[in-house]
């Protein structure tokens, strides 16, 4: 494993052979500014994972939260922000400036285009290409991955109350099945309180 640059790694992380963390990013605008990688606690970083340092245009930091699993050959580009308890399966790739919420699963051999935001509790199916933001709670799949359902099993495993699941289902129907615009959907009460 290689740990380079201004890299901070928290407690109880497991990092396997051939991982490269904190190396110079692949952004052509980068000129050697003192940017960094910050990794939280209890992450599992498997073989040949690459995590590049941030850029000045992206806030100087690439950040990985706590309790994540980055499987073999995962690439985390510059300025990515990964929440807590995410899984990126084998050969998953995050372009620069990608943000993952908490509890996100990225299927094997999937790629997320730069600047995309993936909401919490999302599951992206294997071999998918994500080229736009993905809202929370959904399952998205395909080349130009689009939401095609809710991640109900994942939400149940994380202790969401029946009332919250019902509210999420209603919001999904408004946005994806009833043909409403986002503004029309906002006019309806789709508030969700998540049980921790």
TrEMBL record:
Keyword Lipid biosynthesis attributed: yes
GO CC terms in record: membrane
EC category: transferase
Gene Ontology BP annotations: lipid A biosynthetic process
Superkingdom of the organism of origin: Bacteria
Sorted UniProt keywords: Acyltransferase, Cytoplasm, Lipid A biosynthesis, Lipid biosynthesis, Lipid metabolism, Repeat, Transferase
A GO MF term: acyl-[acyl-carrier-protein]-UDP-N-acetylglucosamine O-acyltransferase activity
Entries under InterPro entries matching the protein: Acetyltransf_C (IPR029098), Acetyltransf_C_sf (IPR037157), Hexapep (IPR001451), Hexapep_transf_CS (IPR018357), Lipid_A_LpxA (IPR010137), Trimer_LpxA-like_sf (IPR011004)
Protein EC: 2.3.1.129
Presence of keyword Cytoplasm: yes
UDP N-acetylglucosamine O-acyltransferase C-terminal domain span: 133-188
PANTHER family given in the database record: ACYL-[ACYL-CARRIER-PROTEIN]--UDP-N-ACETYLGLUCOSAMINE O-ACYLTRANSFERASE, ACYL-[ACYL-CARRIER-PROTEIN]--UDP-N-ACETYLGLUCOSAMINE O-ACYLTRANSFERASE, MITOCHONDRIAL-RELATED
Protein name: UDP-N-acetylglucosamine acyltransferase
């Amino acid at each position: 494993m290689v740990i380079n640059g201004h890299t901070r790694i928290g407690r109880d992380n497991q990092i396997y052979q051939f991982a490269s963390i904190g190396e110079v990013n692949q952004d052509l605008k980068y000129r050697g500014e003192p940017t960094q990688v910050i990794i939280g606690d209890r992450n599992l970083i498997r073989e040949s994972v690459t995590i590049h340092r941030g850029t000045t245009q992206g806030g100087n930091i690439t950040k990985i939260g706590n309790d994540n699993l980055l499987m073999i050959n995962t690439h985390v580009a510059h300025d990515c922000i990964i929440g807590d308890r995410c899984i990126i399966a084998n050969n998953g790739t995050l372009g620069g400036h990608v943000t993952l919420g908490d509890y996100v699963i990225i299927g094997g051999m999937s790629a997320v285009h730069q600047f995309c935001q993936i909401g919490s509790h999302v599951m992206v199916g294997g071999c998918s290409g994500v080229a736009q933001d993905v809202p929370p709670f959904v399952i998205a799949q395909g080349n130009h991955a689009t939401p095609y359902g809710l991640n109900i099993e994942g939400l149940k495993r994380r202790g969401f109350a029946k009332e919250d699941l019902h509210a999420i289902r209603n919001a999904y129907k408004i946005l994806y099945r009833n043909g409403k615009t986002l503004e029309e959907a906002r006019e309806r009460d789709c508030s969700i309180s998540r049980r921790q």
